[in-house]
Amino acid sequence: MSSDYLLSSYDYYLPPELIAQNPMTPRDESRLLVINSLRTHTHSIFRDLPEWLSPGDLLVFNNTRVIPARLYGKKATGAPVEILLLEEKEPLCWLALVKPGKRFKIGSEIYFYLDNNDCSQDNFLVATVVDRDEETGGRLLKFKVNSLDVFWKKIEELGQIPFPPYVTESKAAPSQYQTIYAQKPGAVAAPTAGLHFTDKLLENLQQKGINQAYITLHVGLGTFRPVDIENIKEHKMHQEWIELPEITVEKIKETKANGGRVIAVGTTVVRTLEGAAKAAEMEGKQGLIPYRDKTDIFIYPGYSWRVIDGLITNFHLPKSSLLMLVSALIGRERLLELYQIAIEEKYRFYSFGDGMLILL
Protein backbone atom coordinates (compact mmCIF):
# COMPACT_ATOMS: atom_id res chain seq x y z
CA MET A 1 0.00 0.00 0.00
CA SER A 2 1.21 3.50 -0.84
CA SER A 3 2.53 5.53 2.09
CA ASP A 4 0.00 8.21 1.14
CA TYR A 5 -2.74 5.95 2.50
CA LEU A 6 -1.10 5.25 5.88
CA LEU A 7 -2.07 7.35 8.88
CA SER A 8 1.46 7.12 10.30
CA SER A 9 2.77 8.88 7.17
CA TYR A 10 1.05 12.09 8.27
CA ASP A 11 2.83 12.43 11.58
CA TYR A 12 5.32 15.17 12.47
CA TYR A 13 6.77 16.67 15.63
CA LEU A 14 5.77 20.20 16.55
CA PRO A 15 7.52 21.97 19.42
CA PRO A 16 4.72 22.94 21.85
CA GLU A 17 5.85 26.56 21.95
CA LEU A 18 4.86 26.94 18.28
CA ILE A 19 1.18 26.30 19.02
CA ALA A 20 -0.28 29.81 18.81
CA GLN A 21 -2.23 30.73 21.94
CA ASN A 22 -3.28 34.19 20.79
CA PRO A 23 -4.07 35.74 17.39
CA MET A 24 -1.95 38.43 15.81
CA THR A 25 -3.10 42.03 16.16
CA PRO A 26 -3.92 43.30 13.59
CA ARG A 27 -5.09 40.01 12.16
CA ASP A 28 -3.29 40.43 8.83
CA GLU A 29 0.14 40.80 10.50
CA SER A 30 0.41 37.00 10.59
CA ARG A 31 2.99 35.36 8.37
CA LEU A 32 2.14 33.77 5.02
CA LEU A 33 4.07 30.92 3.43
CA VAL A 34 3.45 31.12 -0.33
CA ILE A 35 3.75 27.92 -2.40
CA ASN A 36 3.41 27.79 -6.19
CA SER A 37 3.45 25.11 -8.84
CA LEU A 38 7.18 25.57 -9.50
CA ARG A 39 7.98 23.83 -6.19
CA THR A 40 9.28 27.06 -4.73
CA HIS A 41 8.19 28.87 -1.61
CA THR A 42 8.39 32.44 -0.35
CA HIS A 43 8.00 33.93 3.12
CA SER A 44 5.51 36.79 3.16
CA ILE A 45 3.02 38.64 5.40
CA PHE A 46 -0.70 38.05 5.13
CA ARG A 47 -1.47 41.72 4.47
CA ASP A 48 0.51 41.35 1.21
CA LEU A 49 -1.92 38.73 -0.12
CA PRO A 50 -3.08 41.01 -3.00
CA GLU A 51 0.45 40.90 -4.43
CA TRP A 52 0.20 37.13 -4.90
CA LEU A 53 -3.18 37.15 -6.65
CA SER A 54 -4.26 38.51 -10.01
CA PRO A 55 -7.20 40.65 -11.17
CA GLY A 56 -10.04 38.32 -12.04
CA ASP A 57 -9.19 35.75 -9.37
CA LEU A 58 -12.01 34.78 -7.00
CA LEU A 59 -11.67 34.24 -3.24
CA VAL A 60 -14.40 32.05 -1.76
CA PHE A 61 -15.07 32.51 1.98
CA ASN A 62 -17.06 30.54 4.55
CA ASN A 63 -19.52 32.91 6.26
CA THR A 64 -20.47 30.58 9.10
CA ARG A 65 -20.56 32.04 12.60
CA VAL A 66 -19.31 30.24 15.72
CA ILE A 67 -22.04 29.81 18.31
CA PRO A 68 -21.55 29.80 22.11
CA ALA A 69 -21.65 26.01 21.96
CA ARG A 70 -20.14 25.20 25.37
CA LEU A 71 -22.70 25.17 28.16
CA TYR A 72 -22.24 24.44 31.86
CA GLY A 73 -25.25 23.20 33.80
CA LYS A 74 -26.55 20.86 36.47
CA LYS A 75 -28.70 17.79 36.64
CA ALA A 76 -31.71 17.68 38.95
CA THR A 77 -29.44 16.04 41.53
CA GLY A 78 -27.16 19.09 41.49
CA ALA A 79 -24.32 17.23 39.73
CA PRO A 80 -22.36 19.58 37.42
CA VAL A 81 -22.34 18.80 33.70
CA GLU A 82 -20.69 20.20 30.58
CA ILE A 83 -22.23 20.24 27.10
CA LEU A 84 -20.70 20.93 23.69
CA LEU A 85 -23.35 21.45 21.03
CA LEU A 86 -22.28 19.85 17.75
CA GLU A 87 -25.10 19.90 15.25
CA GLU A 88 -28.74 20.97 15.03
CA LYS A 89 -30.62 17.83 13.98
CA GLU A 90 -34.01 19.54 13.89
CA PRO A 91 -35.44 22.71 15.45
CA LEU A 92 -34.53 22.77 19.17
CA CYS A 93 -32.95 19.29 19.00
CA TRP A 94 -29.15 19.13 19.06
CA LEU A 95 -26.46 16.48 18.95
CA ALA A 96 -24.06 17.25 21.80
CA LEU A 97 -20.96 15.84 23.45
CA VAL A 98 -21.52 15.53 27.18
CA LYS A 99 -19.37 15.27 30.33
CA PRO A 100 -19.51 13.05 32.29
CA GLY A 101 -21.13 10.84 29.64
CA LYS A 102 -22.21 7.92 31.86
CA ARG A 103 -24.62 10.13 33.79
CA PHE A 104 -26.66 11.13 30.76
CA LYS A 105 -29.36 8.52 30.47
CA ILE A 106 -32.40 8.99 28.23
CA GLY A 107 -34.92 11.12 30.06
CA SER A 108 -32.33 13.01 32.10
CA GLU A 109 -32.90 16.75 32.39
CA ILE A 110 -30.15 19.36 32.42
CA TYR A 111 -30.61 22.88 33.75
CA PHE A 112 -28.46 25.76 32.52
CA TYR A 113 -28.59 28.83 34.77
CA LEU A 114 -27.47 32.37 34.11
CA ASP A 115 -27.42 32.98 37.85
CA ASN A 116 -27.52 30.09 40.35
CA ASN A 117 -29.29 32.31 42.86
CA ASP A 118 -32.13 33.10 40.48
CA CYS A 119 -34.20 30.09 39.40
CA SER A 120 -36.97 32.03 37.69
CA GLN A 121 -38.15 30.74 34.33
CA ASP A 122 -36.52 33.65 32.49
CA ASN A 123 -33.13 32.76 33.90
CA PHE A 124 -32.57 29.17 32.85
CA LEU A 125 -32.72 26.77 29.94
CA VAL A 126 -33.78 23.13 30.22
CA ALA A 127 -32.78 20.25 27.95
CA THR A 128 -33.90 16.63 28.01
CA VAL A 129 -31.79 13.71 26.79
CA VAL A 130 -33.96 12.00 24.14
CA ASP A 131 -31.48 9.58 22.54
CA ARG A 132 -27.89 8.37 22.30
CA ASP A 133 -25.68 8.75 19.23
CA GLU A 134 -23.51 5.69 18.79
CA GLU A 135 -21.22 7.24 16.17
CA THR A 136 -20.07 10.14 18.35
CA GLY A 137 -20.82 8.83 21.82
CA GLY A 138 -22.92 11.96 22.27
CA ARG A 139 -26.54 12.58 23.17
CA LEU A 140 -29.51 14.16 21.44
CA LEU A 141 -30.84 17.02 23.54
CA LYS A 142 -34.32 18.51 23.17
CA PHE A 143 -34.50 22.07 24.50
CA LYS A 144 -37.70 23.22 26.20
CA VAL A 145 -38.33 26.73 24.89
CA ASN A 146 -41.20 28.40 23.10
CA SER A 147 -39.37 29.40 19.92
CA LEU A 148 -36.04 29.37 18.09
CA ASP A 149 -35.64 33.08 18.81
CA VAL A 150 -35.87 32.43 22.55
CA PHE A 151 -33.45 29.49 22.22
CA TRP A 152 -30.78 31.56 20.48
CA LYS A 153 -31.22 34.42 22.93
CA LYS A 154 -30.62 32.08 25.86
CA ILE A 155 -27.68 30.36 24.15
CA GLU A 156 -26.04 33.76 23.67
CA GLU A 157 -26.60 34.52 27.36
CA LEU A 158 -25.57 31.15 28.81
CA GLY A 159 -23.02 29.70 26.41
CA GLN A 160 -19.33 30.22 25.76
CA ILE A 161 -17.40 30.27 22.48
CA PRO A 162 -15.41 27.00 22.53
CA PHE A 163 -11.72 27.53 21.82
CA PRO A 164 -9.85 24.45 20.52
CA PRO A 165 -8.42 22.12 23.21
CA TYR A 166 -4.81 23.00 22.33
CA VAL A 167 -5.50 26.70 23.05
CA THR A 168 -4.91 26.53 26.79
CA GLU A 169 -3.41 29.90 27.72
CA SER A 170 -5.23 32.34 25.47
CA LYS A 171 -6.10 35.92 26.29
CA ALA A 172 -8.14 36.26 23.10
CA ALA A 173 -11.64 37.69 23.22
CA PRO A 174 -14.44 35.51 21.80
CA SER A 175 -14.77 38.00 18.92
CA GLN A 176 -11.21 37.16 17.86
CA TYR A 177 -12.35 33.61 17.16
CA GLN A 178 -14.85 34.86 14.57
CA THR A 179 -14.09 35.94 11.03
CA ILE A 180 -14.99 39.58 10.33
CA TYR A 181 -17.52 38.39 7.73
CA ALA A 182 -19.22 35.74 9.94
CA GLN A 183 -22.98 35.88 9.38
CA LYS A 184 -24.80 32.56 9.70
CA PRO A 185 -24.71 30.96 13.18
CA GLY A 186 -24.17 27.24 13.43
CA ALA A 187 -20.44 26.40 13.70
CA VAL A 188 -18.78 25.03 16.83
CA ALA A 189 -15.30 25.93 15.56
CA ALA A 190 -14.07 28.81 13.42
CA PRO A 191 -13.03 28.46 9.76
CA THR A 192 -9.60 29.62 10.87
CA ALA A 193 -8.04 30.49 7.50
CA GLY A 194 -10.45 33.42 7.45
CA LEU A 195 -9.28 34.81 10.79
CA HIS A 196 -6.39 36.61 9.03
CA PHE A 197 -8.62 38.96 7.04
CA THR A 198 -9.26 42.58 8.01
CA ASP A 199 -11.64 45.11 6.50
CA LYS A 200 -8.67 46.95 5.04
CA LEU A 201 -7.30 43.79 3.41
CA LEU A 202 -10.67 42.93 1.87
CA GLU A 203 -10.84 46.48 0.51
CA ASN A 204 -7.33 46.21 -0.96
CA LEU A 205 -8.22 42.92 -2.63
CA GLN A 206 -11.36 44.42 -4.13
CA GLN A 207 -9.46 47.44 -5.42
CA LYS A 208 -7.08 45.12 -7.27
CA GLY A 209 -10.00 43.39 -8.99
CA ILE A 210 -9.90 40.22 -6.89
CA ASN A 211 -13.50 39.14 -6.44
CA GLN A 212 -15.21 37.63 -3.41
CA ALA A 213 -17.95 35.04 -2.93
CA TYR A 214 -19.37 33.08 0.01
CA ILE A 215 -20.47 29.58 0.96
CA THR A 216 -21.64 28.23 4.31
CA LEU A 217 -20.30 25.17 6.09
CA HIS A 218 -21.13 24.91 9.77
CA VAL A 219 -17.86 23.55 11.13
CA GLY A 220 -18.53 20.53 13.30
CA LEU A 221 -17.28 17.07 14.08
CA GLY A 222 -16.51 16.26 10.43
CA THR A 223 -13.77 18.89 10.34
CA PHE A 224 -11.95 18.21 13.60
CA ARG A 225 -12.72 14.55 14.31
CA PRO A 226 -9.40 12.62 14.39
CA VAL A 227 -8.52 9.91 11.93
CA ASP A 228 -7.94 6.79 14.02
CA ILE A 229 -7.43 4.01 11.49
CA GLU A 230 -4.09 3.21 9.82
CA ASN A 231 -5.59 2.70 6.36
CA ILE A 232 -6.98 6.20 5.85
CA LYS A 233 -9.15 5.05 2.94
CA GLU A 234 -11.34 3.30 5.51
CA HIS A 235 -11.95 6.52 7.49
CA LYS A 236 -15.53 7.78 7.40
CA MET A 237 -16.10 11.52 7.69
CA HIS A 238 -18.97 12.81 9.82
CA GLN A 239 -21.46 14.75 7.71
CA GLU A 240 -21.57 18.54 7.84
CA TRP A 241 -24.25 20.86 6.51
CA ILE A 242 -23.23 23.04 3.56
CA GLU A 243 -24.80 25.66 1.33
CA LEU A 244 -23.48 26.71 -2.06
CA PRO A 245 -25.70 29.57 -3.27
CA GLU A 246 -26.49 30.29 -6.89
CA ILE A 247 -24.66 33.64 -6.87
CA THR A 248 -21.43 31.89 -5.86
CA VAL A 249 -21.88 29.23 -8.55
CA GLU A 250 -22.28 32.00 -11.15
CA LYS A 251 -19.17 33.82 -9.91
CA ILE A 252 -17.13 30.59 -10.11
CA LYS A 253 -18.28 29.90 -13.66
CA GLU A 254 -17.58 33.47 -14.71
CA THR A 255 -14.12 33.37 -13.13
CA LYS A 256 -13.14 30.19 -14.92
CA ALA A 257 -14.59 31.37 -18.23
CA ASN A 258 -12.40 34.48 -18.00
CA GLY A 259 -9.24 32.56 -17.10
CA GLY A 260 -9.22 33.50 -13.40
CA ARG A 261 -8.46 31.21 -10.47
CA VAL A 262 -10.86 30.03 -7.78
CA ILE A 263 -9.05 30.26 -4.42
CA ALA A 264 -10.68 28.60 -1.42
CA VAL A 265 -10.21 30.42 1.88
CA GLY A 266 -9.92 27.39 4.13
CA THR A 267 -10.44 23.66 3.96
CA THR A 268 -14.15 24.07 4.77
CA VAL A 269 -14.60 25.97 1.50
CA VAL A 270 -12.73 23.21 -0.31
CA ARG A 271 -15.05 20.58 1.17
CA THR A 272 -18.11 22.64 0.23
CA LEU A 273 -17.14 23.30 -3.38
CA GLU A 274 -15.72 19.87 -4.08
CA GLY A 275 -18.51 18.15 -2.13
CA ALA A 276 -21.19 19.99 -4.09
CA ALA A 277 -19.43 19.19 -7.38
CA LYS A 278 -19.18 15.52 -6.45
CA ALA A 279 -22.87 15.41 -5.51
CA ALA A 280 -23.86 16.96 -8.84
CA GLU A 281 -21.65 14.48 -10.69
CA MET A 282 -23.21 11.53 -8.86
CA GLU A 283 -26.64 12.79 -9.92
CA GLY A 284 -25.46 12.86 -13.53
CA LYS A 285 -25.55 16.67 -13.76
CA GLN A 286 -23.06 18.68 -15.77
CA GLY A 287 -20.92 21.23 -13.94
CA LEU A 288 -21.35 22.98 -10.61
CA ILE A 289 -24.89 23.72 -9.43
CA PRO A 290 -26.35 25.35 -6.29
CA TYR A 291 -26.39 22.90 -3.39
CA ARG A 292 -27.92 22.84 0.06
CA ASP A 293 -27.46 19.58 1.94
CA LYS A 294 -24.83 17.62 3.84
CA THR A 295 -21.43 16.40 2.71
CA ASP A 296 -19.12 13.72 4.05
CA ILE A 297 -16.45 14.15 1.37
CA PHE A 298 -12.99 12.96 2.43
CA ILE A 299 -10.14 14.34 0.33
CA TYR A 300 -6.69 12.72 0.38
CA PRO A 301 -3.86 12.15 -2.16
CA GLY A 302 -5.13 10.80 -5.45
CA TYR A 303 -8.22 12.99 -5.40
CA SER A 304 -9.27 14.48 -8.76
CA TRP A 305 -9.93 18.18 -8.29
CA ARG A 306 -13.12 19.55 -9.80
CA VAL A 307 -13.36 23.22 -8.78
CA ILE A 308 -10.54 24.92 -6.89
CA ASP A 309 -7.28 26.32 -8.26
CA GLY A 310 -5.69 27.28 -4.95
CA LEU A 311 -6.06 27.36 -1.20
CA ILE A 312 -5.43 29.62 1.76
CA THR A 313 -5.07 27.54 4.91
CA ASN A 314 -3.44 27.39 8.32
CA PHE A 315 -1.01 24.74 9.58
CA HIS A 316 -2.84 21.61 10.72
CA LEU A 317 -2.50 18.95 13.38
CA PRO A 318 -0.52 15.74 12.72
CA LYS A 319 -2.55 12.82 11.38
CA SER A 320 -5.58 15.04 10.72
CA SER A 321 -7.96 14.80 7.77
CA LEU A 322 -7.09 18.45 7.04
CA LEU A 323 -3.42 17.56 6.60
CA MET A 324 -4.50 14.86 4.16
CA LEU A 325 -6.67 17.30 2.22
CA VAL A 326 -3.78 19.74 1.75
CA SER A 327 -1.51 16.83 0.80
CA ALA A 328 -3.92 16.07 -2.04
CA LEU A 329 -3.08 19.51 -3.46
CA ILE A 330 0.72 19.50 -3.38
CA GLY A 331 1.76 15.99 -2.31
CA ARG A 332 2.31 14.60 1.17
CA GLU A 333 6.12 14.61 1.07
CA ARG A 334 6.24 18.16 -0.26
CA LEU A 335 3.79 19.35 2.40
CA LEU A 336 5.74 17.76 5.25
CA GLU A 337 8.93 19.35 3.89
CA LEU A 338 7.20 22.74 4.00
CA TYR A 339 6.01 22.08 7.54
CA GLN A 340 9.59 21.40 8.60
CA ILE A 341 10.67 24.66 6.98
CA ALA A 342 7.87 26.47 8.81
CA ILE A 343 8.98 24.91 12.10
CA GLU A 344 12.59 25.96 11.51
CA GLU A 345 11.39 29.48 10.69
CA LYS A 346 9.28 29.58 13.89
CA TYR A 347 5.92 29.93 12.18
CA ARG A 348 2.93 29.85 14.52
CA PHE A 349 0.71 26.79 14.14
CA TYR A 350 -2.98 25.86 14.31
CA SER A 351 -6.10 28.00 14.79
CA PHE A 352 -4.53 31.30 15.89
CA GLY A 353 -1.35 30.68 13.88
CA ASP A 354 0.07 31.72 10.53
CA GLY A 355 -1.17 30.85 7.05
CA MET A 356 -0.21 29.24 3.75
CA LEU A 357 -1.18 30.26 0.23
CA ILE A 358 -1.05 27.36 -2.23
CA LEU A 359 -1.43 28.18 -5.92
CA LEU A 360 -1.77 25.30 -8.35
Automatic annotation (TrEMBL):
It catalyses: 7-aminomethyl-7-carbaguanosine(34) in tRNA + S-adenosyl-L-methionine = epoxyqueuosine(34) in tRNA + adenine + L-methionine + 2 H(+). It is found in: Cytoplasm. Pathway: tRNA modification; tRNA-queuosine biosynthesis. InterPro entries: QueA, QueA_dom1, QueA_dom2, QueA_sf. Its EC number is 2.4.99.17. The keyword Kinase does not apply. Coiled coil: none annotated. Keywords: Cytoplasm, Isomerase, Queuosine biosynthesis, S-adenosyl-L-methionine, Transferase. GO terms for cellular component: cytoplasm. It is an enzyme of class 2 (transferase). Its main location: cytoplasm. One of its GO terms (molecular function) is S-adenosylmethionine:tRNA ribosyltransferase-isomerase activity. The keyword Isomerase applies. GO terms for biological process: tRNA queuosine(34) biosynthetic process. It holds the Pfam family Queuosine_synth. Transfers and isomerizes the ribose moiety from AdoMet to the 7-aminomethyl group of 7-deazaguanine (preQ1-tRNA) to give epoxyqueuosine (oQ-tRNA). NCBIfam families: PRK00147.1 (NF001140), queA (TIGR00113). Monomer. Belongs to the QueA family. This is S-adenosylmethionine:tRNA ribosyltransferase-isomerase. It comes from Crocosphaera chwakensis CCY0110. The lineage of its organism: Bacteria, Bacillati, Cyanobacteriota, Cyanophyceae, Oscillatoriophycideae.
